[in-house]
Amino acid sequence: MSSSVTTAELYPAPPDGAVAGLPRLLAGVHEQCALTLTEHLSVHGQLPLVGGGGRSRSRSRAAKLFEEVEGSGLCGCGGGGFPTATKLRSVAGARGRPVVVVNAVEAEPPSSKDRTLLELAPHLVLDGAVLAAEALRADEAIVAVGEHAGASAASVYAAIEERTGRGEYGRIGLTLVSVGGGYVTGQESALIAGLEGREALPTFTPPLPFERGLRRRPTLVNNAETLAHLALIGRLGARWYRGLGTSAHPGSALVTLSGPVAYPGVYEIEAGASLCSLIDAAGGTTTGVRGVLTGGYAGSWAPAAAIDELELSRDRLAAAGGAFGAGIVLLLSSETCPVAETARLARWLAGQSARQCGPCMFGLDAIAEAISGIAAGAREQASDRRLQTLAALTAGRGACAHPDGAVRVIASALRAFAADFEDHRRAGPCELCASADELPLPLRAAGHSGARP
Amino acid sequence: MSVSLATAGPSVLWYLTRATGAVSLVLLTGSLVLGVADVRRLSTERWPRFIIDSLHRSVSLLALVFLGVHILTSVLDSYASISLVNAIVPFTGSYRPLWLGLGAVSFDLMLAVVITSLLKGRIGYRGWRAVHWLAYASWPLALVHGLGTGSDVNGAWLLVLSVVCGLAVAAAVLSRVLSGWPAGATGRRVGLAATAAFAIFLLAWLPAGPLGSEWARRSGTPSSLLGHSTTTTTNSSATTR
Amino acid sequence: MSHRVEVNPITCEAHGICAELLPERVSLDEWGYPIVDGRPLHGSELEHARRAARACPTLALIVARERARSRAS
To answer: I need a surface site. Which of A108, A440, B152, C7 has the fewest CB within 10 A?
Structure first.
């Protein structure tokens, strides 16, 4: 096995001595290119088979796998945090032949963990997909990437080609599909719509995808990282998995750290590690920090003062009013204005609405306008009460969780930067407002129609 | 010239056919206008949304009932030998086949619209909506049918009625287009263009057609009936039998 | 077995007929979209709810049985 170049970019150097057991997902990876199948197998060993043999044998092996997954406490890594064992069992119990979808769309701009995982260790993700497919008696697994996924798509494609030749991995049909669309494309029902050739927009549920999803079949939609963890649990078991992490959030996790640090990028951490230790591993901050966004654009802001307390696991961040989401940790530097950034974010989130549901469409537009008005110190400004009303009217009344997430992240910004918002209400824009462009907010390349009154 | 009930001339059924036809036109017009009010969400305190919507459905059903009578009387009447098949399958039949046939097309479209509406729960909103647009095709066909087949065009009442209904529909369509429905600009342009084209067609056709000379013969009335027609200027009182 | 009223927010086009026919459970927000009280329906409310569901032009109002819908993540 070729020795991998250890850089801080790939996995953290813990300050208090080695954390035994890390890296897991990123074990043995090269700096620039993917592990070949042979290399992958020499790092992780063979993938235990679930399918094959008699029907009853494969069924009991599948049941054993589900038990291990349940015991491991693995939850979805795409932001929802839903218990993976429950999802697997729901699909297994539904009628019809299931299909597995690997969700690597990663439509959240500040996140790049899924891309990185696919670029460096595609076979681990594919192992997980194959394992799940065999346990569910599915015969195909589809890897879905976003339309701008250049290197990661190429990496997956090459990995699939490698496997097609090898008999024991060739049983499950693996396909790579790229799905176009905006922020909501990663949502389960939207992704399925996109895979079926329709516009990638959320649909009204029920029925949920596990019951009736792609081509009306029970569909397992899992984030790429989740399946990578699954591939390791299948080999090493639940007890090993729980050797790291907290009891509510066991194992390791990939996080994307961005902002004013020396080495921003994707890190594999032990769940529950402190934010400070992550920042240290990334070479420390390069400027002052105003606050931190955890969980992505449906997550939560915390002011700089809270950074020392934050620990990066689902339970501990939630307890602190934050969110783990898809492992996004975004530091906001002191060289930008948090109010202006929030206004930008609010406008962007409004623009990313699928515009299918009135309350989301109108509510997010109204909120964006209100925040922009406050940021500009306009004469007519929305009161706090008005903002609360808008939040109540917008959240929870759409077909998907986009408006809920948007309301949540904006409300958290209003709390975390309350003093700055007050200043802007009174005095208007500050000198940092005009140049505020730290939050990555790409324009949607091909917008979808959906102008509904 | 005289026509009597005893001869092979217009009977009670014939008058009923014309009357129910006219009433159907009025009801269809009303249905269309209410439909536009519905989609534009117009309402007042006395006429809330659910009333407008419900009225639209009721008037449509009533129109269908009158249409049913209209077809029945025209078939039962022996004057012009129109069969039930002629009434539903367009352009068959010997009596003014083109103009009657337009009525049959209009009726068929109406049937599609009403049946899909009654089965809305089964076919879902999108399927229902796609078929419902046919209503806009059904109405002009009904109007032209009435002007082309009817024997009363020279008499003022049908003409006035048609003009009033036509203006009402034009106003409704314009009101819809100008307020931004349908959302796609092409749809709106099509709506405006079609309305204008239809109006021009009527202005050109009416004087040359139904209001012109020898319309009964030109429109395809069988020659056996021509002597008894009341619209031609050939005031022939010769009985043919 | 209890029933409750639900709205399919994608199909809803803010006609507002539901709020007229079932004011006990549906009110309209400032943009004309329904705010639904999802508590179980009792007695004659169920009849009114069914009528409102039939009257909805886009069939967005639904009278659903017991299980409250959950959202896909």
So the answer is: A440
Residue B180: closest C-alpha in chain A: A453
pLDDT(B93) > 80:
no
Note the pLDDT of residue B154. Answer: 57
CATH number at residue A276: 3.10.20.600
Burial tier of A373 (Cβ tally within 10 Å: 0-12, 13-18, 19+)? middle
Q: How many residues does chain C have?
A: 73
Q: Could you tell me how many helices (H) and strands (E) chain A has, helices first?
A: 15, 11
CA of residue A302 relative to chain centroid, distance: 19
Distance from CA of A393 to the nearest CA of C (A): 7
Q: Do C59 and B124 touch (CB under 8 A)?
A: yes
| pTM score | 0.85
Domain ranges, ordered by start, for chain B: 12-223
pLDDT classification of A57: cutoffs 50, 70, 90:
confident
Tens-place pLDDT, residues A255-274: 999 999 999 999 999 999 99
Q: Scanning every residue of chain A, which has its alpha carbon at the shortest distance from the alpha carbon of B181?
A: A453
- Domain C3-65 matching CATH 2.102.30.10: the answer reads no
Instruction: Among A333, A368, A388, give the residue marking a domain's end.
Output: A333
Contact check, Cβ <8 Å, A358/C32: yes
Kindly determine whether residue C70 and residue A208, on different chains, have CB atoms separated by under 8 Å: yes
B50 vs C14, C20, C60: nearest CB: C20
Number of domains in chain A: 3
**Contact between chains at C31 and A358 (C-beta distance less than 8 A):** yes
- Closest approach of C70 to chain B, Cα-based (Å): 22
Per-window interface: A 248-287 vs C, CB < 8 A: none
DSSP letters along B3-54, please?
Answer: --SSSSS--HHHHHHHHHHHHHHHHHHHHHHHHHHHHTT---SSS-HHHHHH
Q: Which residues of C touch B56 (CB under 8 A)?
A: none
Q: For residues A150 and A292, state if they share a domain.
A: no
- Residue A123 above 70 pLDDT? yes
Write out the two tokens for A356.
Answer: 């299918």
Do A235 and A87 lie in one domain? The reply is yes
* Structure confidence by residue, pLDDT tens digits, A306-348: 999 999 999 999 999 889 999 999 999 999 999 999 999 999 9
> Do A55 and A150 share a domain, yes or no?
yes
Chains near C with 3+ CB pairs less than 8 A apart are A, B
Torsion of CA B191, B194, B198, B204, to 10 degrees: 140
Containing structural domain, residue A391: 338-427
* Nearest chain A CA: its distance from C2 CA (Å): 18
Residue B90's pLDDT is what?
84
Residue A450's closest chain B neighbor by CA? Answer: B183
